[in-house]
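Field reference: "sequence" (input) and "structure" (output). Example, Reverse transcriptase domain-containing protein:
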Amino acid sequence: MQLHIRNYEDTGPVLIIPNVPIMSAITNYKTTPSACDSDTSLPDAVCVYNIAERKTIPPPNNQVLCLSMADVKRNLGRVNPRKSARPDNIPDRVLRECAGQLVDVFIEIFNISLSSAVVPTCLKTMTIVPVPKKSTVSCPVALIPIVMKCFKRLVMRHIKTQLPPSLDPLQFAYRPNRSTDDAITTALHLSLTHLDNKDTYHLIEKLSLLGLNTSLCNWILDFLTGRPQSVRIGNIFSSTTTLSTGAPQGCVLSPLLFTLLTHNCAAMHSSNHVIKFADDTTVVGLISKNDESAYREEVQRLTAWCKANSLSLNVDKTKEMVVDFRRAQSDHSPLFINESSVEIVKSTKFLGVHLAENLNWSLNTTSITKKAQQHLYFLWRLRKAHLPPPILTMFYRGTIESVLSSCITAWFGNCTVSDHKTLQRIVRTAEKIIGLSLPSITDMYTTRCIRKANSIVDDPTHPSHTLFTLLPSGKSEADVRQIFLKQKRRKAPGPDGVTPACLKTCADQLAFIFSQIFNRSLELCEVPACFKHSTIIPIPKKPKITGLNDYRPVALTSVVMKLFERLVLAYLKNITGPLLDPLQFAYRANRSVDDAVNMGLHFILQHLDKSGTYVRLLFVDFSSACNTTKASASETGEIHVKQPHHQHWRPQGCVLSPLLFSLYTNDCTSTDPSVKLLKFADDTTVISLIQDGDESAYRQEIEQLAAWCSLNNLELNTLKTVEMIVDFRRNTPALPPLTIMNSTVSAVESFRFLGTTISQDLKWDTSHRRHYQKGPTKIVLPSAAEEVQPATGAANTVLLSRH
């Protein structure tokens, strides 16, 4: 590899020029330098800063970032081989082609650097190349070793995953589902003041406050300090100077670190907004009745914030633009920052888009058209070289369409017809050169608007999320047909007599009709009364029936309504999952009864490891509809019990009932850390971890649960609510019983929890007798003459039958 590197070394002359006073003209690149001098000592114009920073001693539980071999190899394999050689003269192609052989060496270097929080000096050495922006302004670009560039990409990806969601919502850089389109669109409603900041960093304390571990903060500090740096113009090199401040342009971590440094720079007044995209900052002030006090105070506060955080405002490049459509306009007083007047402009370029004070997009269209026409020439040259149409189309999409569609969602909708024709003319010219049809500029705008709207709607943290109001979720004909075809033919029909076999057989013919009915119901927020009619079938839970508590009420609803509920349920599950209680295991992704049982056992066993501890488990049961029916109903034969139209209850057997119950009880949580409230839909278990015989927290939690149920119109069934005590202490005293609403809770030795029988000695005897046996149940459907006609509410019919 060394021989290969030597062959790539620059053979031209290299001159080392000693330091001279003019060096400060290049390093202080944000100010306008003097005209370029022909003196060969010009590259030595570098200014030296020294900042005394001390590394923080990591705590004992500090977790050091450890990179994996796969990540390092993947990053080395993605190196662009066409880039120029860096200060170490290692060609990028060497790292790309030899990634498999070099990964073992670099993974050890990277992890040692992270664990010791020290960056090797050879990896921090960089060369500054001044790139002219204008005739009198140069932009310094840092050339660093490509190995360090790959290293910083890995660190940057880790930092982005560790950032809290509490970052400034108006910072659009380095955030998922954010782009320059969002920043421009957010700022277009308001007046603009563009501020350009110098790159000076003092951020280690803020990184610690954001939750980054101490080792990583120390590593970043070591990277930012003691960096050998030289300036190169052509083959002329300045002498090396060590810097301990800032991070030059071209550094991978610089924009992200600046974003984290300014995350707490936000507007204080509700009429002002600070919109940021990395270091591009815009202050937007909404001014009413000529009162600019809040706006000017915000600018002064921003100036003070920059001074407190070692940032310098470049007043020469700071511009102000006033958007004023009033008829009687007056002269606007200039804005002063650090006793310097800010220039008021009629247009400015913000994140690549030209904004005008009259919000007209002709200047932006002219700029885009000029750039796209320049690229059309290269497309024509490729056509002359007889390249095939697919290659020409690829070049068009990468160089011309990307220019035309840059931030198109922010400006195209308000362009004039003349601007539309100008942009479409470029597309037609490209079509003639390529010889294929291309998407029109209007189609590009429509596609990107829909894509942008969907991404904003799916992201509740997006600043523009509140601007969208979703219509009721429509159900397509394909969705309805698919769920009809999934029906089981052997299922019993509903109260309306419609069988699942009929819907499955005629799915193609009925899908369109029912999709219209379903969407109309969602649009009007009304469910047809014929769909809400249900028949209650009491199913015995035990062979020996002693009362109504031994029945399980199951609702027979319309098969069509059941399918409708499934479609709505699929939509609700996607949006309610993150909102549910973490200890609610029903209707959650990657959750099951196994997780609920395992979590309950984990709480129990973890607590019992300590001496003098025991656990009390309360298996809560809520009253069902059959507890409200008359007791004499079970003494007759096959009868119909007509109940009033219910507005407050959803019976068992309804598809949406468990999810609605889970959402209804979502705020029912434990307030004491020693008491856990475990839920799986309506199966609720209170697990109390008791130590030294202190049951006050447990009993107080039960009282709060009973009060919550009373407040939320839920009735605790004290006859079916039981308690089990897990106690492995040798000298076990008699424990006082639990009382709920003046009723003593029964204590049991075992209980069937979510299909698993748990005993108080935590033994898993497979010969355990089942709590109940399944017996044959006769289901009687009402005839047409006996059907109950529903009115405004949902009518319920209870069918009771003897075995």
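The chain has a mean pLDDT of 72.
The longest strand covers residues 683-691.
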